[in-house]
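Figure 2 data, in text form.
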Amino acid sequence: MTQANIDPKFALAILNATKKGIDAKTAREETEPGVYQGIVLDLHVEVDEMRVAPDTDKSPTASIPLLTTCALMLQRFQPNDRDKALDVFRQVMTQAMDMGKDQQKKLLADSGVSELEKLLKEEVISKLPRVPVKGAVTVKPDEVRVTVTGMSIKKN
């Protein structure tokens, strides 16, 4: 892909304006599967105001590998207890998926898992290097106008 010779502010404006000014979900629903080549669009884009927040940093987050955690737990059971452990896993996973947010919060608090999470954040995650985060770019949908002035598909 070639880079447009464009000021980065204008590139951000185009990207965010087209995200806000065009209904991508409807467009996808109305487009047949296939390969479309040589699409050429002439656009007129207006953005009344675009805000670019300052860069920040945050504590790193790590996804807990659920299946690896399950495997490690199963290793701690005797071979003849594994089927029972798997059955309990299935039951509690189903139960957890059926719980509402308030029930989940209460369970985590009552079981001590919320306190464990707090301790892990304080004792482990807080000691990891912070991760840089680019500031958000925002435009309000009512402050954006995208007008297509020409559409064509090049013939090969």
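Caption note: The first strand starts at residue 39 and ends at 47.
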